[in-house]
Amino acid sequence: MILSFNQPAFIPWGGFFCRLLASDRMVLLDNTLFARGFTFVNRNRVKGPEGEIRLTVPLKKKGLGRQKIKNLEIYQKKYWGKKFLATLSHLYGKSIYFERIYKPLARIIKKQDNQFLNMVIEILEVLRSGLGINTPFILQSQTGVAESGITLLIQIAGMAGADEVILPYPSRPLVDWRQFEKAEIGVTFLKFTAPVYPQFRGDFISCLSILDMLFSLGQESTQLLKKSFTLTG
To answer: What is the span of the domain harbouring residue 220?
Structure first.
């Protein structure tokens, strides 16, 4: 069984879904701390008339200190949700694939639930379904493993009965893969090359949210993603 890992992420890019395609299960590291400063956990980019547009989920932070991702709450969700959905309608409303993607997203965004993790997981399920990917998600918090770093990944992999783990290629010089070998778990690195595809308006912009690809190509996105990564030991 092949396992991959990622922090829960809001409308993530293609590289996230390539790891999902290449693995049998993906562990969402919801019990990790929300990063200080810039992070793609609660934001990503789409394409506008003048170039990229960042879409960020506002979070409640005042007086709460460092929070784990599983505990994050959305700040003024109703106001933010209206703005987010209006932005998608404005930018991609003319797409022939718009309604099949937008409608389930709108149902999620309009829910009276301020928990960030709940929203992200539901959105990931919609995006996964839109790409025709069946790989299930596992929440770190459900495993009971509370370690950190490579020890966390090894213990979760062992508990899940994984024979192999997939890690992002940029992490290759940073990971002591021999620790996996000692635990009799193989390591494969996934190298993602952002694909070029027809986009709405203007020059091509690389590495946008998967939403841009889905609104541009529909389910053809899956075949393009399959050609966009290589696996190496």
So the answer is: 2-232
